[in-house]
Amino acid sequence: MSVETWRVRWFARSLLSLAALIVLLPLIYMVGISLKPAGRVFENVFLPFTTTVTLQNYENVLKTVPMFRYLWNSILFSFGVAIGQLLLALPAAFAFSYYEFRLKKTLLALVILSLMVPFVVTYIPNYLLLADLKLINTLPGLILPMLGISLGFGIFLLRQHFMSFPKEILEAAMIDGAASWQVLLRVVAPANISAITALLIYILINTWNQFIWPLLIGGGREEAYTLTVGVQMYFINPEAGNRWGAILAASVLAALPTVIVYLIMRKGVLRTFTEGAIKG
Amino acid sequence: MDRTLSLPTFARYTRTLTRSGAQFWSRSLRGLQPYLYIAPALTAIVLFVYLPLVRTVHLSFYQGNLLNPTRVYVGLTNYTQLLDSPIFQRTLLQSGYYVLFSLIGSVIIPVSLALLTLHLTDKEIDFYQSTLFLPTVMAFNVVVLIWAFFLLPTPNGLFNRLIALFGQAPQSWLKDPLFALPSIALMANWKIMGFHFLLAVAGLKAIPRECLEAAYVDGAHGWTLMRRVVLPLFAPTGLFLITVTLIGSMDAVFTPIRVLTEGGPNNATNNLMYAIYSEGFRFFRLGQASAMSVILIVLFGGVIYWQYRLLDRWVTYER
User: Which of A9, A123, A270 sits opposite B133 (nearest CB)?
Assistant: First the structure.
């Protein structure tokens, strides 16, 4: 290896490491300050950690805020959306990949174009719709519109995977007398299980992290707060001035589940995020 | 004789008729199958995306309160009022500022970092991708609170301590009309950078290695290789990233604006998307919010159309 390539390589490494450090630093501070003793948050503010590490902030948060209630709501919300979207996307993607029919192109375009409609445009009409249905401040109200919004992504992604599945196997199954829904459930879905799981994780993470919509629909009643909304309400709660440690402890608790899932399923998550974007 | 059918002929006739009838039904059922598979998904999309879209356009010709069903038809008044309003013009301008910041933080920086990975092994690339991606999987309204801590207006806030090292007086970052917008943009780009880095690297990896090796053998090195070979082949990904950024820049700052500034101070951090939200859900002005939504859709439609035109031309040019 020439000296020049060696130098370029180290240049690349150091710049990328610097970028990684800049990205990670706020997260390190978040964890660090949440572990500082309450009165000593601003002591040595440049250092994310003090010598004494305490879980006192976490105890305070769990004592004063019903975090487990919020956690449960977040679980119901994200699993409701993820499973619902999957149930809708699977048959649609199946039809779009293996059938020829007259309106195929138009309907597919309709599905994909729906992803270009900005969230914020749908907030007001969907809010009005849910108000008519008396679903404001309820979990079904939170979940329902999310089954349509961004559903196109799942259909599109699954279609990409289904299309690369050999058609001969399907035809063989059909000749053996299997109905098309059996082909979907017994052949296509099991064969694409890794793509389906990755999509499920992707929707779970995205839904878990939603904030504006749960705030609009569930923000009026504490029983309907998701974790993100709960943390926001804790943050704006005016009582007690100097409680950054506790606020950041609540943040860490709310962010932890998706980070853990990401660390476990890293490869699949990264692939899904990439595929969804590039192939679009 | 011709007009009457003998019994056997009649029997055969009806049999063929019923058989073809059954065939007809089974065939059209099979023809209906794909539609049946698509129907539930399409219903959800139409109900929660397209009908709202239509309703938004409809509402933009009315004035009324979000919480009150009485609405008055006002024609194009909402639009003329908006286009005449200096605050709205400023909102549009600031949306443009956010785009400029995003072009640096969500296109130039991640693409440059991605180009650097050409010199690294796959294992190293994987490490940097995974690390930089971490903020993407975390709830933004939650991690944005650490930035609120960094930017505390008190002298003991981290940023204020930092500038104090250079002898500067403490700033109230998020309440200062000059610093508020860049601060918000900084948070948004911090969050998105890793995601766009991931996409940029994927775009680079899609370039066939043989192309690069052939060019290298032909004597293209360093900057020439980059400019003449890598960048043209990377162009579709780059264009895609620019489009995503043009469209996503307003969305990216939505959460920090909502949590930290609510568009203030005095509209200094507002943009078109947040304005729609606050018109609708803070001031309950349905008509104004809907008219803004229509303007937003038209702008986005333009960007997407432009991207397709450009992509079309480039792709045909390459072939």
Answer: A270
